[in-house]
Specification:
201 residues; mainly alpha; minor pseudopilin epsh fold; 2 domains; 3-stranded antiparallel beta sheet; 7 helices; 49% helix; 11% strand; binds fe (ii) ion
Length: 201
Amino acid sequence: MLNKVQIPEMIPEKCYSTEEVGISRITHDEHLKLWQGYAKKTNELRELISHLEKDPSKANQIYSSIRALKVDYTFAYQGLINHNIYFDTIGGKGGKPTGKVADLINKSFGSYENWVNDWKCTGMGGRGWAFLSYDHQTQTLFNYIGDAQNSFPIWNHTCILAMDVYEHAYYYDFQTARMKYIESYLQVIDWDAVNKRIENR
Ligand SMILES: [Fe+2]
């Protein structure tokens, strides 16, 4: 059976520095409950899947227990992973990146300004997430759209930056003005944390 994942106990302290750009403590504290929910449901689903009677004659693509549990498992576990990356990579100084990520952004987008423009469009175009991911095949970066927790990751990539654009991430602070939230977010990216993710890719 798979091990249990750790339930996040608190928002990393550095994240609260985002208050300076309008992303509030209340938003983060409420967000923690959702982050914990993904971890708890991941553990619950691991338990259920491990104890499920594995009878191939009962497995069915229209509806079956194995299908329901395994589809929602990806929503729960990917939701946990997305939030792990989100809270690991905010609470920094934002602005222009340095180090390896700066080189990769220049290689992949031509310039930081081009990347920002693409990131803003991706953030406005997604229903839930924008993901900056390293493609091991091309050794370049790409900004991916995420509609739900489990769409649309792609194989052979490492996600190095995840921006939550579900309304719970910004509505309390910016109401429906998502672009204002994205502009604030760009000022608090922790590029050092992103560079560590690249090192560990
Ligand atoms: Fe979220």
